[in-house]
């Protein structure tokens, strides 16, 4: 699965901690959009889509949430529960976000501006797309 969980380098000293995210280091694309999800309710599940081209780096600067990932072959649950945990998504991956703790902010660096035509919002469309693009996708 083209999904990678990793820890950011956190520069900590007596004043606190600082995380820097740079193109070519923590994420392999130019950031064309930044957005964040907040004020979510704990029992809400959202996402329910996959992207054809978009690459994203996700992290929770505050709080925690879980992600259900599915690339059509493999499924994975990821917990983002610390500001120094990142999740890089570079493949065609169905994602659902859930278990948001109160006060959570889910931040996303994205490789393209918002484009609804890059979305697959029906699981059946995603499954069909993955099958049709299997060779590209290896
Ligand atoms: P939506 O895709 O439903 O969120 P989720 O990722 O949780 O499934 O997006 C919610 C609304 O925000 C929807 O009307 C589209 C809009 N939106 C933008 O305008 N720009 C963006 O960059 C994003 C991610 C969403």
Keywords:
138 residues, mainly beta, 5-stranded antiparallel β-sheet, 2 helices, 12 strands, binds thymidine-5'-diphosphate
Distance between the termini: 9 Å
Count of helical regions:
2
Provide the residue-averaged pLDDT: 96
Indicate the structural class: mainly beta
Q: Approximately what portion of the residues adopt beta-strand conformation? A: 35-45%
Overall body shape: globular
Biggest β-sheet description: 5 strands, antiparallel
Which ligands does the model contain, each kind named once? thymidine-5'-diphosphate
Task: Provide the low-confidence segments as ranges.
Answer: none
The amount of helix comes to: 10-25%
Counted beta strands: 12
State Rg.
15 Å
Order of helices and strands: EEEEEEEEEEEEHH
Biggest sheet strand order reads 1-9-6-11-4
Task: Please provide a written account of the structure.
By secondary structure, the chain is mainly β. It has 2 helices and 12 strands. The radius of gyration is 15 Å and the shape is globular. The structure holds thymidine-5'-diphosphate. Residues 33, 35, 46-47, 49, 114 line the site of thymidine-5'-diphosphate (TYD).
